[in-house]
């Protein structure tokens, strides 16, 4: 829909500005309705942002945090996004937030998706804040090019909730919130760092094939404006 580019000199400045923007949106939601919800991405980019946000002076007991997407691995696996959030965000003041994991100890990602969809929808949707990342293949959340359920996951008519998705570039099976769960967030952020990702973003903005670059769904069809945070 519309996007605004917020450019910073470095990742430290970006983390400070992004955490201030996210904390202020969460505080406004708490003031307004007594609670707030936040869905964050995993991967390597958000660490500094998580650390900055964890000390924000807001009423964390009223905040529900979950993941935009998760790898289908237990929490103690180094590839777990839950582990990343636990070690970097759920500490200090933010340790009193309620965290809803996407991974469940069941056989398949499909079963886990059903369980977690029931847990999250009523409590947290629509999200007050969603922070997306982007891979150099143009994926966001776990909307991977070539993903077996990509078309359904990106269809706005697919209900809000969590789906399983399998793709060659994803490593393991994935759990992802559907597009309709993310596109209407009160604050919708795309957080990317490095020149390579800026090039990927520019490529995404210059075309419209979502199967090739699923991030295009967010850039062109999200009903909320997309706030892009970038640093070299
Ligand atoms: O679990 C994940 O992999 C993600 O949530 C994913 O969508 C991530 O945001 C991008 O892959 C960027 O990852 P990097 O920050 O590691 O480049």
UniProtKB/TrEMBL annotation:
Gene Ontology biological process terms, A to Z: carbohydrate metabolic process; pentose-phosphate shunt
Protein family (similarity comment): Belongs to the glucosamine/galactosamine-6-phosphate isomerase family. 6-phosphogluconolactonase subfamily.
Catalytic activity from the UniProt record: 6-phospho-D-glucono-1,5-lactone + H2O = 6-phospho-D-gluconate + H(+)
Gene assigned in the entry: pgl
Gene Ontology terms, MF aspect: 6-phosphogluconolactonase activity
Enzyme class: hydrolase
Alphabetical UniProt keywords: Hydrolase
The name this protein goes by in its record: 6-phosphogluconolactonase
Alphabetized InterPro entries for the sequence: 6-phosphogluconolactonase_DevB (IPR005900), 6PGL (IPR039104), Glc/Gal-6P_isomerase (IPR006148), NagB/RpiA_transferase-like (IPR037171)
Pfam families: Glucosamine_iso
Pathway: Carbohydrate degradation; pentose phosphate pathway; D-ribulose 5-phosphate from D-glucose 6-phosphate (oxidative stage): step 2/3
EC number(s) stated in the UniProt entry for this protein: 3.1.1.31
All copies of domain Glucosamine/galactosamine-6-phosphate isomerase, residue ranges: 13-221
Function: Hydrolysis of 6-phosphogluconolactone to 6-phosphogluconate.
Organism of this sequence: Martelella mediterranea DSM 17316
